[in-house]
Design goal:
about 100 residues
Length: about 100
């Protein structure tokens, strides 16, 4: 999970986009492929990493579209395991966008 937080905090937006694309697919794998693990552990790490990027308004259009899709995927597949405060924050940002 360290590579996700590194990729999301990187200065170069193309690295952010590739990290988000990987995260988009990883979310589905965590939900469907790891039945015997605690999904909330992964979902909270991912949501904490995504919230800062999702709040940003001064980002590249391609990055903005990718973060919106990734957060939507997180809510769809792992929303039930998210911390209620994180879920509320993500939904409020979605509403504003």
């Amino acid at each position: 999970m360290e590579w996700i937080t590194y990729g999301l905090k990187h200065e170069y937006y193309k690295i952010n986009i590739e990290c988000l694309n990987s995260t988009f697919n990883l979310i589905k794998i965590i939900r469907e492929g790891l039945d015997s693990v605690d999904h909330s552990f992964y979902s909270n790490i991912l949501s904490n990493g995504l919230i800062d990027k999702f709040k940003a308004n001064d980002i590249d259009q391609e990055l903005k579209l990718t973060i919106i899709a990734t957060v939507g995927n997180l809510i769809f597949y792992l929303g039930h395991t998210l911390d209620p405060k994180s879920l509320e924050t993500l939904l409020d940002i979605y509403k504003d966008k």
